[in-house]
Design goal:
heterodimer; A: mainly alpha; 3 helices; 84% helix; 0% strand; elongated; B: 0% strand
Chain lengths: 94, 117
Amino acid sequence: MTPQALVGYAIVAAMHLVGLSMLMALYRMLRGPTLPDRILALDTLFVAAIAQLMLFGMYLDTPVYFEAALIIAMLGFVGTVVLSKYVLRRDIVE
Amino acid sequence: MSWVFAILLVLLLAAGCFFILVGSLGLVKLSEFFKRLHAPTKASTLGVGCVLAASLGYHALAGTDPQPRELLITAFLFITAPISAHLMAKAALSLHMAERPPQPGTDPADDTNREAS
């Protein structure tokens, strides 16, 4: 077994584990009893999607997914802030 | 890529996956929102930081992407995660005003009186 093969297996295993955690966050988002629970689950889903996308970029040996991950990070933060503001004030643009 | 760097990358990936998994498990298993808020906002952010560091090392060693651009995402996530957690806690507090715990420093006898009445 070469070092490259070891890292390849580790990347595939990591993608499975991150996918499992994305499924758990999705379960909380669909079931979540209150609205902040769903916002929190969406935020977790964004974070896990960034990790999954970087792992996919490592799996395919290409850095093109970096920009997508950066955009997901920025839009995820803005989405969380806007949803929380909506819950707080029932109004987004004040 | 030598064995030392490979094992280092595998350890980083394992730590990252462990923390992301712990964050999501806490999100599913904990009992109420303010307990659930702890797990993903801290553990998942640390986990994704580990995964991004592993990706940085992998692309630097493989020569596909020499610039450390993943540090941008790491810095952005580490800055924004506490802000979004704070805003979510404020939103939840504004929804559950009746379930707010007593403030520290107030007399606990008041609470027992309120529960009894």
